[in-house]
Design brief:
Elements: H1 33-57, E1 61-68, H2 74-82, E2 90-94, H3 100-103, H4 109-112, E3 121-125, H5 134-137, H6 153-173, E4 176-184, H7 187-199, H8 209-215, H9 218-232, E5 239-243, H10 247-264, H11 274-291
Helix pairs in contact: 1-10, 2-10
Length: 292
Amino acid sequence: MTQPIDCPLLTPFDGSFDLSSVPTSPPSDAPGKKECKELLAKEVEKLDDLQRVLYAKDHHSILCVFQAMDAAGKDSTIRAVFKGVNPAGFQVHSFKRPSTKELDHDFLWRSAKALPERGRIGVFNRSYYEEVLVVKVHPGILDSQKLPDRLGLDELFQNRYESIRDHEKHLARNGVVILKFWLNVSRDEQARRFLSRLDDPRKNWKFEPGDVKERGYWDKYMDAYEGAIQETSREHAPWYAVPADDKSYMRWQVARVLRKTLEQLDLAYPEVDPAEREQFDGFHKQLSAELE
């Protein structure tokens, strides 16, 4: 099992996470935008090499969970960090409003069937955490979930935290390396990005009127994030709270955490046993002779 990366963005595992202490902007000594882009490019190159060995070794899979408020930069971060990774060993799933079929199952079902296979990197753009975030902010959603017993809200969400902890522990025991990134954007920066979408015709398609309505629930969302992170950040499934007001810095940090985690797996290409090696030598002589 990997150990959480020694990183100031790492959230504690003792339930003491305090959202107010987590910055939305990079530290004062952080590299500038140009240098962050250069650092990201180096990380992406290393990730490509590490992913190839991960795929060949075929013992672990990587699950990266991205959660954030609207306009925090989930899509662009996923695109920037994974653009150099071989598509054969990489997959992305985006989770939106559950379908009728999905509502006929427990809340973990639709994401469980989308988990990455061994040797692959999987990305969840939003995830089962929506069930303790948006549902907690809008509990009326529960009316459509066909639950057998209507518990009190506190008990229901405590049960869901427990289910998530158990689920992630089970995955970790079976070789799934879990990294959870909360892209922490400020309310003011979100407003600026919404305005950018309105001002630029090429970005109009990204804007949804409902996004502005959700800003009215900002404090409730922050409480929900704090509770979810407190309850589910564990050594085998850490949360990283990443400042998201500066996209260049945010992308570099996500890539850095992923690269350092992959390095901890001590990956190596599979070795051929002596019997196979002898057989390979025979094939080598045969093929070389055909080319003479």
